[in-house]
Design a protein that fits this description.
The protein contains 6 helices and 12 strands. By secondary structure, the chain is an alpha/beta fold. It is globular, with a radius of gyration of 17 Å. Bound molecules: zinc ion.
Amino acid sequence: MKPIHEIHESHEVYGFPGKGPLLVTCEHSSRRIPAPLRTTRTDRNWLATHWGWDIGARTVCRELIRQTQSLGVFARFSRLLCDANRAPDHQHLIRCAVEGSVLSFNKRLTIEEVDRRLEKYHAPYHAAVDHAVAQRINSPGDVLLLAVHSFTPQFGEEKRTMDLGVLYDPFESVALRLQAEIAKTGLNVALNEPYSAKDGLMYAATRHGDEHGAVYLELELNQKLIGTAPDARKMGRTLATALRNIRLRVNPVSG
Ligand SMILES: [Zn+2]
């Protein structure tokens, strides 16, 4: 069976509806700045870095979805347009500058422009995730809402040495089981690293998981391991094996 692939202005939907054990989301899968906005060469240099998108994450998601026959929703706009993993009122919803360099498309932002981005990109992306979770939760079998992200190994002065982080807030037992299964593959996996889901930075998974009573986690993958398509697909297969082995029969109430 072939996966479906729908492309919308704010998001894409990929995979196998109503089947697999995962509902995968990727808030930072794209570095696209849609028209009518324009970008300069300097902007495009920033957009190509981890500031613009989560390098490798979309390829990992697609492989993970194929391996588990699951469904995914991926954003089709850069986090620098507006950040789909932040609340609309978050101070970093839109960054005007990165590392002291001003982004031309975020200079002189008006309230109208912020609202336009929220209405055309942020809100429809989350409506699509909401719809997918609602549909999946009403189909048979366990489901884990899994937000997939990637992180830069060098963030300013901070060196991040772990291969992978499992971010969780309420679902500690599921996170521990997944950590143990991933560790068996030889990867160095940490919990709530390189930052904690308890600090409000796991916005998308928390919002939709809580809304629908679904179990949710976020994965943060080191970009050094998924910088090429073959490496990213290999990571997708590794994660699929680990996720299969935790055997998802989980109780959302007790976590
Ligand atoms: Zn991310």
